Amino acid sequence: MTAIEYPYAHLDRGTCAPPTLSEGKVYLIPRGLMGQQNDRKAISLDLATGAVREYSIDLVSIDAIGVNSDYAFVTNDLNGVGHVGRIDIETGDTLAVDLGSAAGQLICDDSKVCVFWIEFGRGEPDRTYLSGFNEDLSVASTADLAASGIEVPMLPTALTNGRIYFVSYHQPKSEHDDARFTIAFYSAENNSVGHFAAPGQGAKDYEVSHLLPLDVGLLVFGYMPGIDGKPGTGLVELLDYESGELIDSFAVDYVPSQCVIWGDWLFVLGATPADMLLV
Question: Long-range contact list for 3-9, CB < 8 A, 24+ apart?
């Protein structure tokens, strides 16, 4: 294997997100030097040749990136003020709009761009929203996730069947209250939010690491952290898209982290207590 050096500081795939792949290229964010994050660009890396193309956009501290057939979309956040940016991947032309609040993760396809963003409470509880944007970055719809009982929406996300599936985290309110994860979804058709039962077959310490949409259902990868020096155990579940009911599941002896479908094969990046491995 030949290593290639690239002249970028803190080259990243985006905040906690799986790599963004499109037509044989991976799209990445050069964050810049620590504490500055002022490279103001995204790049595409050709997986066959190693060639790089830069896309300049006048935004600092870029946090997330997503790609469809025509555009790369990014979000940034600087001191609680965020933007959504659009880059034409053919011409390099850019467009950006001010959210006025802290922007988070985005997910997109050829029909929609959806962005999670936070309205800070200034003494009141923060509220998180999910907004759908048109291709020209005008707002098409906004859902108040807090009003639907979603406290902390987290990665990972999956976009399929007209829905965005994502992980919702319940923060403990007292020592007798348990932290827990659930699968939530947003329907763009009627601007509504819903919940599935907790994944991990109800285990309170189950954490979700990846969501992967398949034709037959939503594949959920997660793990239960180890206790008293024992290694954690991974669990993969297939859930029905409409009901969230468990279709199938199997345990693995590693902690699944990221995954991708290639042909008829499912490749999973996982961690053992000692190191990382590809299985």
Answer: 4/50, 6/45, 6/52, 8/39, 8/43, 9/33, 9/34, 9/39
Q: Please state which CATH number belongs to domain 1-155.
A: 2.130.10.10
Sort strands 180-187 and 255-262 into parallel, antiparallel or unpaired. Answer: unpaired
**pLDDT value at 59 more than 80:** yes
Residue ranges of domains in the chain: 1-155, 201-279
d(CA 277, CA 138): 43
Q: Residues 6 or more apart from 80 whose CB is under 8 A from it?
A: 101, 102, 120
Instruction: Tell me how far CA of residue 193 lies from CA of 146, 156, 166, 185, 189, in angstroms.
Output: 10, 16, 11, 6, 11
pLDDT at residue 34 in the model: 66
Taking only the tens place, the pLDDT of each residue in 213-260 is: 888 898 888 887 766 666 677 888 889 988 888 899 888 887 787 777
Q: How far is CA 154 from the centre of its chain?
A: 8
Provide the pairing of β-strand 94-98 with 127-133.
Answer: unpaired
Task: Please tell me whether the overall predicted TM-score, pTM, comes out greater than 0.90 for this model.
Answer: no
